[in-house]
Amino acid sequence: MLQKTRMRQSRCLATEAVLTLLCGCRQANPDFVAPADAEVDAAIAAPVDVASPVRRDLGGAADVADPADAGSGSDVFPADARVADMAVADAPAAASLGHLKLTPVAVSAGDVALGATRLLSFAVTNVGVGPLTITMPGGLVGSAAFTAGTKLGAGTVLAPGASLAERVLFEPAGRGLVSARWDIGGDDGMGIQAVTFSGTGAPVGADLASWRINGVAHVSASGIDLTGVQTYAAGSAFMQTVVSTAKLEISFDAEIDMGTGGDGMTLTLADATRTTPQALGAAGRGLGYAGIPGVAVALVTLKGDMIAPSDNFVGVAAGPRSGPSDLVNWVTTNAVVPPLRMQKRAVCVSTIAGALKVWIDGVLVMGTNPPDLPAMAFVGFTAASGGSTDRHAVSNVSIVVGGADQPGP
Predict the structure, then answer these.
(1) What is the reported pTM?
(2) Which of 203-207, 235-239, 391-395 shows the lowest per-residue confidence on average (mean pLDDT)?
(3) Cα–Cα dist 408/41, whole Å
(4) Which residue, 109, 117, 154, 169, has most beta carbons within 10 Å?
């Protein structure tokens, strides 16, 4: 700074000499004649008007700089400019702004059952040394399956180290992978930052390994084997989440084979207010269902009582019924269906406002309004054998809660 305040030699040799004496940064001027001590003291003590550029000779009054000197090679600077330069030079270089950080920047909801909701979150943090103001709170753009659970307002100020938790709800309405993005910006000069979200809508209960397995049933490589070829056995498997039957679509593949033909299997909507996922009904003609409160769609391969129409039929049952504990209370049956044994069959069942429909391989085979259809149910499968046997297996299970008004293949 002392070099920057050097005066022109032609007019201020005395001043130049004083500066040289003070800092020792100039070579001695052979033409210089030192002023008397009193003159030096007077020059140093004299007041300076910092509002305008000045030059001061040791022996005279202040000399206001001529504007014509500007740009002429003059080393004269305004006094206020010198003060500003010195202030900048002396100030520390520490930053004073906040700094926005979003964590994490990618959030995955994973697989979420259709109709279910998963809560996601991320943090908005000021990692700087000064306050941070949110200038662009943004919002979610992308799939409507993602909705904001909190609202970040414009003008929100975060102190250094402060953090806010923002929440996002993922509620898939359809199957497959979807995504969204939330853009946020602050006054830290870093521009817009983003958090991305992804999630997959999956059929309810598709993970059969999480179901409750009862009796002789067991999880297989492709699904669940409800029974093997043992005699007088029963097995069941129930999803451990309660679902509404107001609008429900369930599809699955059914396989009945390997034995001598008995007795059959069911898709059961067990009354969640009267039973649990541990439910297991009677063996033989009870189909592993008899005794469980709720409604069942049955695939039967052995005529077990006088009401059953044949050794190959589809029926809807409601129970439990009075009488023998292994008897099924049939609401309606249909024997005009394709063979249910020795071939995989695609089954679809829907319930809408109390009405139940059944499709086999894409063909509607039954429609009814069964009594005692529970409003809330545990979805499950049952099967049983008696003196005759078969393997009863389910796979490729899909459960859609609140699906389309016209479900089915």
Answers:
(1) 0.57
(2) 203-207
(3) 105
(4) 109
